[in-house]
Amino acid sequence: MTIAPTEYQQRRQALMEKIGQGTAIFRSAPMAVMHNDVEYAYRQDSDFFYLTGFNEPNAVAVFAPHHEEHQFVLFVQPKDPEKEVWTGYHVGVEGAKERYGADEAYPIAELDEKLPQYLQNADRIYYRLGRDRAFNDTILKHWQRLMRTYPKRGVGPIAIQDAGTILHPLRLVKSPAELELMRKAAEISVKAHNHAREFAQPGRYEYEIQAEMEHLFRLHGGNGFAYPSIVASGSNSCILHYIENNRQLQDNDLVLIDAGCSYGYYNADITRTFPANGTFTPEQKTIYEIVLSAQKQAIAQVHPGNPYNQIHDTALRVIVEGLLDLGLLAGDIDEIIKEEKYKPFYMHRTGHWLGLDVHDVGVYQNGEDPQPLQPGNVLTVEPGIYIGPETKPAEEQPEIPDRWRGIGVRIEDDVLVTAQGHEVLTAGVPK
Ligand code: GLY
Ligand code: MN
Ligand code: MN
């Protein structure tokens, strides 16, 4: 199950239609060091991968629709049999053309020499300044040189525009093939969550549950976890990005698991919260039911044309109403929302786009105008309430009785916007 070469070609075509007389440049992701001379398994930059399917470092992709001969150019690591014995196979210059459809390919060492011909007649450079400062400087250097000769020519790239502004609207709408991969990532993650719930019990360690889940991620063909798995028991459930996962589950603990796998570069992102011993305490149940209601009502807002913000606004209102009913908040609901007095209990947004990146690209708002949901968007819906041991109420808000402390609940599903409404891709894990 992969993305077909023709789909990569369609994506490049869509990009090139948008840039017209411009030239777009994308840089591969760097190798990340684990320690000393050991590197993490390589993962390509998502923009780069979306346009090429090419999974090697030290590469640059150039798109120049106005160029007479080469519209899609790859700069890559050349083949080097001696080095490849150590570091693995390189596609090489010929492979970049034959297997990845580049009109032209060069060894990466020739970038400085070959790049100007693709920039000199462009009216603009599309490039996202990245973490690789040296490469940013390379692009700026070429731009500066071309602008020095601009008066003589009267053509050239007069501006640099962030490449994400043109590419990311494309990534926001998933194709059927992308959705197939996302469904698979969701399906494996659902299996892992269902197993985790059955496996968890007082006495188990958080890391044991993590290990069971990550075993299943890989066993079913996933690339591993989409982000470091969070298995948070007891009051650890109130720490949003808790990843130590080293505590032993106690009777009457809640267990919050936020874990998902990556499959074919696409991600799932699921959170479930359940009682370690199988039965909620009354307080846990009360909080859980508020979050569940918030999540269900927010998911009901997912249909084409609805503004993205409505999902958060809906969940937030249900949460604030619930906390008002419990006396954990006091006052007028609109004022509490406006002045963010709920923030000690609910400090994050209700979701994000999901895709090649877990926190996927794409805008959530267009200035004053909302971003409307479109069929093919995939987003998470993940409200929560967190009442930590140290949580302090907002100014002039009630004290927090001890019986509520240590309760953290989040429920997160991955939701596809369909023509008719929505489909919850992760519905297979009970709530
Ligand atoms: N697991 C990261 C998130 O839910 O956004
Ligand atoms: Mn999420
Ligand atoms: Mn999550």
Description:
With 431 residues, the protein is an alpha+beta fold. It folds into two domains: 5-170, Creatine Amidinohydrolase, Chain A, domain 1 (3-Layer(aba) Sandwich), CATH 3.40.350.10; 173-424, Creatinase/methionine aminopeptidase superfamily (Creatine Amidinohydrolase). It is built from 13 helices and 21 strands. The strands form seven sheets. Strands 6-5-4-1-7-8 form a six-stranded mixed beta sheet. The protein has a three-stranded antiparallel beta sheet with strand order 9-12-13. A three-stranded antiparallel beta sheet has the order 10-11-14, covered by helices on one side. Strand 20 and strand 21 form a beta hairpin. The chain is globular. It binds glycine and manganese (II) ion (2 copies).
